Amino acid sequence: MPTVRQTVLDIHAEVRHQDFGLTGDFHTVARFDERLSAYASRPGWAAVLGYDAGEPVGFCFGMALAADTRWWRSMTEPVPEEVIWEDGRRTAALNEIVVRKRWRGTGTARRLHDTWLAGRTEERVTLLVDPAAGGGKVQAVYESWGYEKLGEQQPFPDSPRFAAMIRPLLTG
């Protein structure tokens, strides 16, 4: 597991810092590592790493939202309770999906996403995306995958204000 963890941290640093130039405390490798540790300790957490000829190309990971999740608490506008109630089996949260530059635009992100979802049993999946990422192109990609914006949230005082997106977990 230490090798896998280091691979995830290295890809994160390459993509977020070198490729996208993201700066500030929220985007440091140390802070990402703290979030990774917190996510990985939760029930239902799973990760998918992609490789091309032995070279790591990207990763995604997430977990089921627990009945006592704080996921929805940082919504900037109220959302109806029937939309955000959780029981530990209702919603999968995709925390991260990151693909190295050489493999972007090749369908790699979609394959990682779909592989991760293939092992899920929840009825729906949610994710957060920075609406400014790629000039809005990243959010548009998620919309093309069936996600709809539910609202906005800012889960950490120094994080971006994210679009909270959701879609049914398509099976079969």
TrEMBL record:
Gene Ontology MF, one: acyltransferase activity, transferring groups other than amino-acyl groups
Membrane spanning residue stretches: none
Entry-linked PROSITE patterns: GNAT (PS51186)
Gene3D superfamilies in alphabetical order: 3.40.630.30
UniProt cross-references to InterPro entries, sorted A to Z: Acyl_CoA_acyltransferase (IPR016181), GNAT_dom (IPR000182)
Superkingdom of source: Bacteria
Domain N-acetyltransferase, residue spans: 1-170
Protein's UniProt name: Acetyltransferase
UniProt source species: Streptomyces tsukubensis (strain DSM 42081 / NBRC 108919 / NRRL 18488 / 9993)
